[in-house]
Amino acid sequence: MTRNIMSILRGVEPDQAVSIAGALIDAGITIIEVPLNSPDPLVSIRRMADAYGVQARIGAGTVLTPDQVSDVAAAGATFVVSPNMEPEVIRATKRLGLTAYPGVMTPSDCFSALAAGADALKLFPGEVVGPAGLKAIRAVLPSDVPIWAVGGVSGAVLSDWFAAGAQGVGAGSALFKPGDTVEVVAAKARAFVKQYDEAVA
């Protein structure tokens, strides 16, 4: 079962990246993002892609330029996530055969991202827009456009997001924050997966 949960490992260290990824995968989370403002992110991406590229999708977040897209593709990433909607980043992502998740907040952002070739939309910051905002935006978008809620998403509100039209969620500190041990991440991931499964049942 592939769950539409993207774990955002902001601040992960390369030496712990593989073990953290393993804990997430064991718990049932197989989409893992390393933001580029983490320590040596390309090293972490490469190590996780080498270890788990068959079992999980490994990607990069906070990708702001086409050059960064090239760097993360070379490191083994299969998807690119941005906090903003930059058409050149989206186009570079698609040229290299990666999946593009640009950040959007308004209907204008959404339609511009789709015109540039986005595969899915990252509604960010989710906690500001909220499920009510997503529901309003969803009403004017094509029904087949995947929207992922990211930013302040916790397991307790997953059902609200899915009811509003989200296809997936991205979670940061709810799954990992710098200093967390593998055991802590594993426990967080199991709890989040349980809440996700209940929300989509």
Automatic annotation (TrEMBL):
Highest taxon in the source lineage: Bacteria
Keywords, in A-Z order: Carbohydrate metabolism, Lyase
Pathway field: Carbohydrate acid metabolism
One Pfam family per UniProt: Aldolase
GO molecular function list: lyase activity
TM region(s), chain numbering: none
Stated family: Belongs to the KHG/KDPG aldolase family.
Self-association state and partner proteins as the record states: Homotrimer.
Protein name: 2-dehydro-3-deoxy-6-phosphogalactonate aldolase
